[in-house]
Amino acid sequence: MPASRQFLCRTPSSHPGRSPLTPPPRFQAPAPPSSRPSGQGRGPFNGAGGAGRGSAAAPPIGRPAPRAFSAARGAGEERRAARPPIGRRGAACAAPLSARSGGCGPGGGGRGCMAAADGLQFPEFADAASLLAANPDATTISIEEPADGTKSQRGRPQEPGREEDDELLGTDDSDKTELLAGQKKSAPFWTFEYYQTFFDVDTYQVLDRIKGSVFPVPGRNFVRLYIRSNPDLYGPFWICTTLVFAIAVSGNLSNFFIHLGKPTYHYVPEFRKVSIAATTIFAYAWLVPLALWGFLMWRNSKVMNIVSYSFLEIVCVYGYSLFVYIPTAILWIIPQKVVRWVLVMFSLCLSGSVLVMTFWPAVRDDNRRIALATVGAIILLHALLSVGCLAYFFDAPEVDFPVPIVPAHNGTTLIKAQ
Amino acid sequence: MAAAEGGGAGAAAGPLFAGLADVSISEDIPVEGEISVPVGSHSPDEDYSTLDEPVKDTIMRDLKAVGKKFVHVMYPKKSSALLRDWDLWGPLVLCVSLALMLQGGSADSKEDGGPQFAEVFVIIWFGAVVITLNSKLLGGTISFFQSLCVLGYCVLPLTVAMLVCRLVLLAGSGTVSFIVRLIVVMAMFGWSTLASTAFLADSQPPNRKALVVYPIFLFYFVISWMILTFTPQ
């Protein structure tokens, strides 16, 4: 017996053949006890007098089962035509006094309610079985209410073979195509609380995200795994700031060690480079996500089933992926070319893989060339950043092989400095 | 029904309040008395007018407050003097003196010198504002200016380190002096960070303390780096 919420709306005049259904009203004081079967509770969804009489107990409220309502034959049109506005009462469905959504008004949504012959009557909600038992000829329409409401509400068909991509795609919250994931940020943007929602992370969460960016698990999406629709601005901002100072300080130190011992070298702190580093890194960490987000939005409007991330999530991924450059910058102090380039490759692989694994599922469904071009552009920009920083902030290490001796004309030897 | 009830009540209450209809304040019932607002606790400044005191007293009072806070920073205990009576005079004095002492390190090349006065100023104040905003966004309960006050006052050990560095550099600029400077700056950096953490840590939510302390660490690290790399021309 499928349990469901059953609402019935009929006018007694249209069904002369049936027994008039006078439900035991909820709020009417003089209720004839004989019309109520004993042993039934007084819940608001109790069986209608006619339908529930002698049947099993009505289901409790709120069972998350398929909701079915039976539209009595012939009463359907009347009910639809006579679905009254809130204020109307009468031969048509009567709205209950309570504010429950099972009302007969426009918000009733097609559920029926018992009409009574006189005055204000209250709807009775019976389960489908009992109503069907009462009038087995009624046409029944069933609305399946999915147990897992979010997934099936998406219109996107889940193709076979993509189940393992659910973790990558994250179809549960991929519909956030607005600029910021708007579900929990409900404060208006001019209040302080709005910005506090971007800093709603704990220490262990930040550490987990950093760990996830340094040790990318192949096949797992950083956004799905770690961010989980709670993007924060703490990580990107402070990682970028630390990177700025790490690059500036390491560059300065490395230059100092390289040129140490030369008589003509005078150490300068090179403080200007801090502002240049800051501009570069913050521009990269904010403008490239903006461009990428705009591009993904544009492609999303053309190809419907591309998953899209919110702007903050892209900023988060980029910010956390820059973390691996901090130890790289410190290790770049070592004045060996080979070591430096190995470090470049290694860090590019690590942070690039985080980015690729995040964005490949987002562009995979698109045109093949565009997808490859997008991913290629992401990696290229990332590589450009690291190589550019290495070239600008770190002087080339001197190669120490013996300098060639050039014989001069007048016999003195000139040692040609490198 | 309500109206009828009101009417009935009115009719029933007639004899009770009959006199009210005839009350006119000025003639029948003399109203007199005293209305006195209880005077709240005056701050000690308002017991006597501070306009008449000599200027020296005014200045000395503020200087004493600043000096007391300096002492609290150098010996950080769990006192609330910095937090309760915050002021920004001390941070201003410290910032200006630090920026002035960091001058003279970049004479020749305009590009690769040390930080200019404006750069030091901006780094200290802007950095303190950013750290305060960060701690408030993470859910801290400290007020904006209290946090600025604490961060500014905790620059004091680094200013002392700058002074020591300049004196050491007067003696010479070799490796030994560098090591001495390194040790002094590192010690003062640790002192600054610990002092500010001691004052600020209580106002943070417990599971985010590290998130708040790290920017403070970075802030004082940058200032220490500027001090350590100072080379006079």
Descriptive labels:
heterodimer; A: 418 residues; mainly alpha; two-stranded antiparallel ribbon; 4 strands; 42% helix; 4% strand; elongated; disordered N terminus; B: 233 residues; Yip5/YIPF1/YIPF2 (chain A); transmembrane helix (chain A); membrane (chain A); Yip1_dom (chain A)
Summarize the structure in words.
The complex is a heterodimer of chains A (about 425) and B (about 230). Chain A has about 425 residues and is mainly alpha-helical. Chain A has helices at about 50, 75-80, 130-135, 150-155, 165-170, 190-195, 205-215, 220-225, 235-260, 270-300, 310-320, 325-330, 335-365, 370-395; strands spanning about 65-70, 140-145, 405, 415. Chain A has 14 helices and four strands. In chain A, β3 (about 405) and β4 (about 415) form a beta hairpin. In chain A, α9 packs parallel to α11. Mean pLDDT of chain A is about 65; it is low at about 1-20, about 25-115 and about 145-180. By secondary structure, chain B is an all-alpha fold. Chain B has a domain at about 80-105 and about 115-235. In chain B, α8 packs antiparallel against α9 (about 210-230). In chain B, about 30% of the residues are buried. Residues about 1-10 of chain B have low confidence and may be disordered. The interface of A and B includes residues 204 and 242 of A.
